[in-house]
Write a structure and sequence with these properties.
heterodimer; A: alpha/beta; four-stranded antiparallel sheet
């Protein structure tokens, strides 16, 4: 992986809240089109890092670039080049599928024609063209997640941040969801994903595991398992989270 | 920006609750305050106890009954009957003429009428008392003129300025305007912003290229528009349903209202910045703001009659100053020269609230 191919570069990143150190000297890179798993127990500092990388929060020291733009100085450009989906989906229940696409396309500055084309092609892929005028609250959870992901990548961002995107759905739907992620990664979109499901960690190309603000491990799932001498990512995670 | 505003209208028009608050409330409130909670008196049942039964007492009685304010429930013959009438609850007032009323009036120059009132509703009782005394005073004044004698009793003349007919709707409309603008602007914005927080859509908006200020402006523009439409509906109803005049400049009234709306919106944003859920935002705007607005703004209870400490608190209610402005424009027809101080107070409050909410909003982002 060459230097120019890195979409996310984090160097000596520190974020403090008063005396509490949420992110303690983070260093990592994520390549173009890579699926990067960002793991850690609750309170390990994942959310803080995502906030910094998406331009919502400024680092105390160190630096980070996303798609070649500095997160603290070129926030606007960073925001234009990222997509974001949280566990709450960020879609509006009282609007139809089409209206949701139109709204998010609109705030990312897509032209009317682009929005129409994108909506049609994304919905077609999901086989949801018939549901385009349905209010979102009538759509089942699993479908909502797929829609939310489609909306998050609608403006062809360089990176898409997925913050626990698959909460509350069955394994089959989750599997389908990951197929969508692979497809987008193949198109060159970098996927930065947090999750609590260790089977999902196995799907990632590389995984980092955070504990108490530090990155304790970073490698491919296979190498991590080897390094810790265990059979599953679950065991790797438990070992790190317990602090040994 | 435009997609954002459009989205906001979807939220409003597709939510029955919002629609009721936005468009049902103004009409209901104006009608309610205008018709039901009126302090005008009309057809009050009274009883007469006439110990004298002469031409003067009969004339006064007929004056009272022909005024339109009172209807005769019964003639009582003895003092015992008074208590019974009140206990039955059938009369609100008993008018008692003393014996030899006309003779006394002629000889001594004065005679006594006793008004006994059911004061279980103090406000109504005060009103009835004032109306009855007024009618009797008018009568004795006329009698003095026609007979040309020296004054027979002290006559007080009270002229009601600005609301000569004592129409309570004149008092309520400015208050209703104030409350509705507060309600719609403050409560609806704070709820709609906290809803985005609760739903998690706020995160998505914040990571989007939209700037926080654009998010806020996009949120408030629809409510400014709707509040303004509401204001016009209320004013039209006040004028055409209740015949309330707008003596002063309509343009000035609308401008002052926009200032007040912006103030209320800033307050709504501040509330949404400090509250975590829609319920909390609603409670804060309802009980933290709306009730004090109603109680302390002079809308229902005159500020002058309040304990000193409450009077002090009422000074920080922007609604109090706005009501003064609205009354000044609508009833007195005066210009900005008479209420620039009040305008300045609201303006200052607005600036303060905007500064506070911007600060809070930024803090929350960190």
């Amino acid at each position: 992986m060459t230097e120019e191919n890195n979409i996310i570069v984090v160097k000596d990143l520190v974020k403090k809240f008063g005396s509490f150190v949420a992110n303690d000297n983070l260093n990592f890179e994520v390549g173009k089109g890579e699926i990067f798993g960002f793991l850690g127990a609750n309170g390990a500092g994942k959310t803080t890092t995502i906030k910094i990388l998406s331009g919502l929060s400024k680092p105390t020291s160190g630096q980070a670039t996303v798609a070649g733009f500095d997160v603290s100085r070129e926030t606007d450009k960073v925001k234009r080049n990222i997509g974001y989906m949280s566990q709450k989906f960020s879609l509006y229940d009282d609007m139809t599928v089409k209206e949701n696409f139109r709204f998010y396309g609109g705030i990312y500055g897509l032209s009317r024609k682009d929005i129409t084309d994108k909506t049609a092609s994304l919905l077609e892929k999901l086989d949801m063209l018939d549901q385009k005028d349905m209010l979102l609250k009538k759509i089942p959870l699993g479908w909502k997640q797929k829609l939310a992901f489609s909306v998050a990548v609608m403006h062809d961002p360089a990176v898409v941040f997925l913050d626990e995107p698959t909460g509350g759905v069955d394994p089959i739907t989750r599997r389908q969801f990951w197929e969508m992620i692979y497809e987008k990664a193949d198109e060159g979109i970098t996927v930065f994903v947090t999750t609590h499901y260790m089977d999902e960690a196995e799907y990632c190309e590389r995984v980092s595991i955070m504990a108490e603000g530090k990155i304790e491990a970073l490698d491919t799932p296979r190498m991590l398992k080897k390094q810790f001498g265990v059979k599953t990512m679950d065991e790797v995670f438990v070992k790190i989270a317990r602090g040994n | 920006m435009w997609p954002f505003i459009k989205k906001e209208f979807y939220h409003i028009f597709r939510d029955i609750r919002s629609m009721v608050i936005l468009f049902g409330m103004p009409v209901a409130q104006v009608l309610l305050f205008g018709f039901a909670i009126t302090t005008d008196i009309k057809d009050v049942p009274i009883a007469i106890l006439d110990h004298s039964k002469d031409h003067v007492t009969r004339e006064i009685t007929s004056k009272l009954l022909s005024s339109g304010y009172f209807i005769l429930e019964s003639n009582i013959n003895s003092n015992d009957g008074i208590g019974n009438s009140f206990k039955r609850g059938s009369v609100k007032e008993v008018v008692v003429f003393e014996e030899n009323f006309a003779k006394k009036l002629e000889k001594e120059g004065k005679a006594n009428v006793q008004l006994i009132l059911d004061a279980s509703e103090p406000n109504t009782a005060t009103m009835i008392n004032a109306y009855t005394s007024g009618i009797i005073n008018t009568y004795s004044m006329q009698m003095m003129k026609t007979s040309g004698k020296i004054p027979m009793s002290i006559i007080t003349e009270s002229k009601m300025l600005y609301n000569s007919e004592l129409k309570s709707v004149y008092m309520f409309v400015p208050g209703v305007i104030t409350i509705l603008l507060m309600l719609v602007s403050t409560m609806m914005t704070s709820i709609s912003i906290t809803r985005e927080k609760e739903m998690g859509t706020m995160e998505a908006l914040l990571v989007s290229p939209l700037k926080p200020i654009q998010i806020i402006i996009g949120k408030v523009i629809p409510y400014i528009l709707l509040s303004f439409i509401n204001l016009i509906v209320i004013l039209l109803m006040a004028k055409f349903v209740f015949g309330m005049p707008i003596q002063g400049s309509v343009v000035l009234l609308l401008l002052e209202s926009i200032l007040f709306i912006v103030m209320a919106l800033a307050l709504g944003i501040l509330i949404s910045a400090v509250s975590k859920s829609q319920q909390q935002a609603m409670l804060l705007s309802m009980f933290g703001l709306l009730l004090p607005t109603i109680m302390l703004s002079g809308f229902i209870f005159p500020v002058e009659n309040m304990p000193y400490i409450l009077q002090l608190i009422s000074h920080v209610m922007p609604s109090k100053w706005f009501i003064i402005i609205v009354k000044a424009i609508m009833l007195k027809g005066v210009g900005i020269a008479y209420f620039w101080k009040e305008t300045l107070i609201i303006f200052g409050t607005t600036v303060f609230l905007i500064a506070m909410s911007v600060k809070k909003f930024k803090l929350r982002l960190e």
